[in-house]
Amino acid sequence: MEQKLITIAIDGHSSCGKSTMAKALARRIGYAYIDTGAMYRAVTLYCLEHDMIKGDEVNKPRLRRHMPKIEITFQVNAEGKSETYLNGRNVEHEIRGMEVSNKVSLVSAIGFVRRAMVAQQQAMGRNKGIVMDGRDIGTVVFPDAELKVFVTASAEVRAQRRYQELQSKGDTSTTFEEVLANVVERDRIDSTRKESPLRQAPDALLLDNSHLTLDEQDQWLYEEFVQRTKG
Ligand code: DC
């Protein structure tokens, strides 16, 4: 019997390992994986490259005019990893740096940016069989998703994880305190913004992974998936 395809929405705070767990599940069950944070990051990179951000101000009229020219796509590389492309250019590395991280909350709080991204995300998930991670997937993008998870962990644990990630990528100039401040500030902006603030959907499962190993959380998520797809 053919297994039924479902939509899986993974939301939660920044740097809590959402994408690691979403990717691992997608690989295990043969679903497509979409990192929606990467889409907001790519728009932010575009703004920076076109000089549209001054301090904490985004030039919205200019960005609005440019929106139709911003195309974000994903391609799987030779190692089987999904990478982000901005107008045909691989930007996977650039969008993870601190410059983009420090500005992305400003760009992702803009209504017309969100509407454009949500429409693209809904088109990508039209045929189900998708694992999507972000902030508003279970609340706005796919409110009917069959499996919704809201992931969180303490700010210190999340900052430690991102700090280690930066170090392993050769960034030795960013301190732990800077990373922690960025995590705390992004939590504040993400959960207090007017447009689609970060919140747990009423029917989402809450997962605090501060004290879970990767294997434990992967197995937990897989079992939730199996429960929802068995005949
Ligand atoms: O998951 P991430 O850290 O790569 O996300 C980058 C930023 O984009 C983060 O500040 C929140 C925002 N975001 C959003 O507003 N909605 C999404 N669906 C995904 C990310």
Please tag this protein with its features.
binds 2'-deoxycytidine-5'-monophosphate, alpha/beta, three-stranded antiparallel β-sheet, 231 residues, 9 helices
Average pLDDT works out at 93
Largest sheet: 5 strands, parallel
Low-confidence stretches: none
Cα-based radius of gyration, to the nearest Å: 17 Å
Blueprint (SSEs and pairs):
Elements: E1 7-12, H1 18-29, E2 32-35, H2 36-49, E3 53-54, E4 57-58, H3 60-66, E5 72-76, E6 82-86, E7 89-90, H4 98-108, H5 111-124, E8 130-134, H6 137-141, E9 147-152, H7 155-168, H8 176-192, E10 205-208, H9 214-229
Parallel strand pairs: 1-8, 1-9, 2-8, 9-10
Antiparallel strand pairs: 3-4, 5-6, 6-7
Helix pairs in contact: 1-9, 2-4, 2-5, 4-8, 7-8
2'-deoxycytidine-5'-monophosphate (DC) binds at residues 14, 36-37, 40-41, 104-105, 108, 134-136, 186, 190.
Quick description:
The protein has 231 residues and is of the alpha/beta class. 48% of the residues lie in helices and 18% in strands. Strands 2-8-1-9-10 form a five-stranded parallel beta sheet. A three-stranded antiparallel beta sheet has the order 5-6-7, covered by helices on one side. Strands 3-4 form a two-stranded antiparallel ribbon.
Structure description:
This protein is α/β, with parallel strands linked by helices and 231 residues long. Helix content is 48%, strand content 18%. The chain has helices spanning 18-29, 36-49, 60-66, 98-108, 111-124, 137-141, 155-168, 176-192, 214-229, and strands at residues 7-12, 32-35, 53-54, 57-58, 72-76, 82-86, 89-90, 130-134, 147-152, 205-208. The chain has a five-stranded parallel β-sheet with strand order 2-8-1-9-10. A three-stranded antiparallel β-sheet has the order 5-6-7, with helices on one face. The model has no long low-confidence stretch (mean pLDDT 93). 2'-deoxycytidine-5'-monophosphate (DC) is lined by residues 14, 36-37, 40-41, 104-105, 108, 134-136, 186, 190.
